[in-house]
Amino acid sequence: MNNLARWQRPEISTWTGFGRLTNLRDEIDRLFEVPLAELTRPSQLLSGWTPAFDVHEDKDNVYVRAELPGMRKEDIDLLLHNGSLSIAGERKSDEKLREAEVYRAERFFGRFQRTVTLPTPVAADRINAQYKDGILSVTLPKAEEAKPKHIDVNVS
Known about the structure:
Layout: H1 19-31, H2 44-47, E1 53-57, E2 61-67, E3 76-81, E4 84-91, E5 110-117, E6 128-132, E7 135-141
Antiparallel strand pairs: 1-2, 2-7, 3-4, 4-5, 6-7
């Protein structure tokens, strides 16, 4: 009797020690899944660190939240320019670790910059930014001309 089992490619993510290889595989997969315009953004694998963003809006505001753990507010820069919000900064590594024997290092350190195009014009003079527990929360009030207007219909 002949027992044959179909060969399946092993999952790289189950192999220990190949974290960078898994990231490379994810980046290559991403090349085939995203529109071409998205490819102009530098990849996390090649550039180092890219903090996660959430962007949403309601009728009055646009909200941007960014995960920036381990940073001080002095190391974070915000810039609003031509309908885009840029968040930049630098997360510094521990000086103690430079001389130590490191067994595993998975956290990214260094400079980053992310820019998000805002879905609507905002009132730059009323922007509010708060940083608490590693989360940067930016509230961008919509410009009056961008807010929805209710129009009454007259019956004649």
